[in-house]
Amino acid sequence: xxKASPTQALIGxxxxxxxxxxxxxxxxxRPITVIVPFNAGGGSDIFTRIFQKAIRENNLSPHPLVVENxxxxxxxxxxxxxxxxxxxGHIIMCLHDGIYTAQHYGNADxxxxxxxxxxxxxxSGVVIAVAEDSEYISLAxxxxxxxxxxxxxxxxxxxxxPNHYSALFVQNGxxxxxxxxxxxxxxxxxxxxxxxGHVDVTGFSVAEYAQYKEAGIRALAxxxxxxxxxxxxxPTALEQGVDATHxxxxxxxxxxGTPRERVDYxxxxxxxxxxxxxxxxxxxxxxxxxxxxxxxxxxAKVTERGDRLNAITIETTPPLPPLHWIIxxxxxxxxxxxxxxxxxxxxx
Length: 348
Description:
Helix 2 (43-57) runs antiparallel to helix 10 (277-285). The protein is an alpha/beta fold. Strands 1, 2, 3, 4, 5, 6, 7, 8 and 9 form a nine-stranded mixed sheet that branches. The model is unreliable at 9-21 (pLDDT under 50). The protein has twelve helices and nine strands. It has two domains: 22-123 and 248-310, D-Maltodextrin-Binding Protein, domain 2 (3-Layer(aba) Sandwich), CATH 3.40.190; 125-247, 3-Layer(aba) Sandwich (D-Maltodextrin-Binding Protein, domain 2).
């Protein structure tokens, strides 16, 4: 058997190491930190760790991804940390449409233009739901009531977050309909508020709804353009005469000024991870559509979603009377009632 020449041996070694090679400039030179601007255990954290595991177990990069949770302030703490990080590709972020809504709502003075988009790696449908015993049997019926009694139906949202904007798309989808939007926080909080009767309606991702539906809630519509494969019997808002479509997209971002070749390298690693059976199976389980966009297609999508979300008008809901005025009014009414009763007794 002929021995391999030194040149052949070197070529063979290089080929064997291709999956572990970095970019042409030696990047990455250390683990890549992925900022998740929410607490551990949430949807964004779970999503990011799916890719982290696939990259590690398939040796897709010479250095692993390290997930760092920087929760708080609706995701703006983590996004600010990423924005201000050195633009060398070693600190990136995984953040959904919250990067748009925080800026548009006024919770942050930075947005997508302050980052380099790396990739989009998933889309989740949005479900509009009510309590199981709600009188509203369809989204059309709910919207008719919101038009008949403006600002009386309470829509539980996470104000300034993508969930809030889903609700605004619904309201705008039927001119004249008006909800009173109230702060309820994340998915589990919205669930508790809904089944507790504190709000009339709220929104969940398709995955959240699948998790929560047995707790006593009922879906009225999905905001996708077509019915969701996981919920084939649930009509879209469009089918019910409500011109509302929306979904949640997962994006990866690098600090502004990160070299193009490093952005492309990370995008390529994410693309390889997306193709692994593990990522495909996990996204299917979570009912996340495994889209993958980079380059010009990604830039177009980032611009399109930004334009659409920024076109939303944040309307100020007529405020409830301040508590001290309510107490004062009740005190006056009670005082007048007592005075009249006393006068009545004196004349009897």
